[in-house]
Amino acid sequence: MGRAWRWASKILTIVGLLGGSFNPAHGGHRSISLRVMDELQLDEVWWLVSPGNPLKPQKSMAPLAARLASARRMARISRIRPTAIERELGTRFTVNTLKKLVRRYPGHRFVWIMGADNLGQFHRWKDWREIARIMPIAVIARPGYNGDAVAGPAMAWFRRFVRRPDQIRNWTQWSRPALVFLRFRPDPRSATALRKADPDWFEDYATGSIRDAVTRRLVHT
């Protein structure tokens, strides 16, 4: 069985999915993605640049093309692939996006990546238990959020599905639900701070269109 799995895994593309507004993308996104890529032995990390986050206000949200362009710039010279594929899929909620990605890319094996801040409010996500049954989840510890995440309603359900960090190299073989915590050196950078320092940051990306790194389609302003 082990030998057969090792052979089969060579023909799969192993991908981490990091969703967010990327309003704008910044070095913290890149740093975390590269660390997760190494820890989980991923071939790629896809940044799912959301057309609109149901849990975030739209007032300060920059145009999708500008956010995707900032992500493309931040992801340069890496195996990070920013994509606005949710717009093409016509999905608004993560659970629907993941279902369609699994069907659309049968030769890929996916893991969902999120910060401890998102785990703390995960119980507010649409069909959050179903998300956990679709693919494994890797949670990045974040100072100031870890306590709420561990004490939150979602973690009460997840507790029996938590995997030890020393098992992460075998995550593609895990039954689901499965959740693992990853702890890296804290990165203080945030999109909120960047917007506060430069509210009109998106004007630097007023190019009209940007090519999606996954679908290869042009995304227009």
How many individual β-strands? 9
As a percent range, the share of helical residues equals 25-40%
Average pLDDT:
88
Residue stretches low in confidence (pLDDT < 50, at least 5 long) are 1-9
Report how far the terminal alpha carbons are from each other: 49 Å
Report Rg: 17 Å
Instruction: Give the biggest beta sheet.
Output: 7 strands, parallel
Our count of helices gives: 10
SSE series: HEHEHEHHEHHEHHEEHEE
Q: What oligomeric assembly is this protein in? A: single chain
Strand content: 15-25%
Structural class of the secondary elements?
alpha/beta
Query: How does the overall form come out from the CA principal axes?
Result: globular
Strand order of the largest sheet: 3-2-1-4-5-7-6
Q: What's the short version?
A:
The chain is of the alpha/beta class and 221 residues long. The protein is 36% helix and 19% strand.
What does this structure look like?
- The protein is globular and about 45 Å long.
- 36% of the residues lie in helices and 19% in strands.
- Helix 3 links the parallel strand 2 and strand 3 (80-83).
- Helix 5 (94-104) runs parallel beside helix 7 (128-134).
- The protein has helices at 2-9, 27-39, 64-74, 85-89, 94-104, 116-120, 128-134, 146-151, 153-158, 191-197; strands at 13-20, 44-49, 80-83, 108-115, 137-140, 162-163, 179-182, 209-211, 218-220.
- The strands form two sheets. A seven-stranded parallel β-sheet has the order 3-2-1-4-5-7-6. Strands 8-9 form a two-stranded antiparallel sheet.
- The longest helix is centred in the first third of the chain and has 13 residues, at 27-39.
- The chain has ten helices and nine strands.
- Residues 1-9 have low confidence and may be disordered.
- It is α/β, with parallel strands linked by helices and 221 residues long.
